[in-house]
Prior knowledge:
By secondary structure, the chain is mainly α. It contains two helices and no strands.
Amino acid sequence: MKSSTKDNMEGKMHQAKGKIKETVGKAVGNPDLEAEGKVENLEGKIQEKIGDVKKVVGQ
């Protein structure tokens, strides 16, 4: 599997996990879990963009 595809898939997975953590954190009133979810979601978006850049430059 190309590294760009792997980065895109892993990025989407981290975004999904982050959204779940954020939602659960809000629902149960846990600001730490909510913040952790936001960070993981952002990291997933960054990883996905890295995959897009790799695809453009042909890696």
